[in-house]
Write a structure and sequence with these properties.
MOSC domain-containing protein YiiM; catalytic activity; 180 residues; molybdenum ion binding; 8-stranded mixed β-sheet; 3-stranded antiparallel β-sheet; pyridoxal phosphate binding; M1 Pyruvate Kinase, Domain 3; 12% helix; Pyrv_Knase-like_insert_dom_sf; mainly beta; single chain
């Protein structure tokens, strides 16, 4: 299966879930036009409180649709946009990609992966027990965060459901994604 966009979402307000829309416009260096997290500097409320001048490494939230099937098996029925993602993908193991991977999405957009989404207690406020379901332990004891990845927009463009996603890996050696 080729990697593709399943759905796109945005919300101008700081709410946990985002409504699905027909298309989003990615703006280079800023993020999703019309989304609360759009900007060159941090927009996430807890990060703004720490230092409002730090760069926004969380301009775009991408989530793998395959997580929904996994969570369904654990009793959680989720719909696109409910975990706050901007781009829901299919056919791409986002969590295994290295830092600085570039995703070419649709005909024009290019997103550079900066790290893993760090799931917080808002997930449990949305659905009790969901936080534990999106976290796991690797055999070596490391915490595995499964709530998607974050990125910055290198090249803007319109992104819609059905758009193809092409992966461009960074030069070796690769560095695994860490929470941002």
């Amino acid at each position: 299966m080729s990697a593709r966009v399943v759905s796109v979402s945005r919300d101008a307000a700081h709410r946990f879930s985002k409504p699905v829309v027909p298309a989003i416009t990615l703006l280079a260096g800023l993020g999703v036009q019309g989304d609360a997290h759009c900007g060159a500097t941090v927009r996430h409320r807890s990060r703004v409180a720490q230092n409002p001048d730090q760069p926004n490494l969380r301009q775009v939230h991408l989530l793998q649709a395959e997580l929904f099937a996994e969570l369904r098996g654990r009793g959680f029925e989720l719909a696109p946009g409910e975990l706050g993602e901007n781009i829901l993908t299919e056919g791409l193991d986002l969590l295994s990609l290295p830092t600085a991977t570039e995703l070419l999405i649709g005909p024009h957009a290019r997103v550079c992966l900066t790290g893993l989404r760090n799931p917080c207690s808002q997930i449990d406020a949305f659905r009790r027990g969901l936080l534990a379901a999106v976290l796991a332990r690797a055999p070596d004891g490391q915490l595995v965060r499964k709530a998607g990845v974050m990125g910055v927009v290198l090249d803007g463009g319109v992104v819609s459901a059905g758009d193809a996603i092409e992966v461009r890996l960074p030069p070796l050696p690769h560095t695994g994604l860490e929470r941002v």
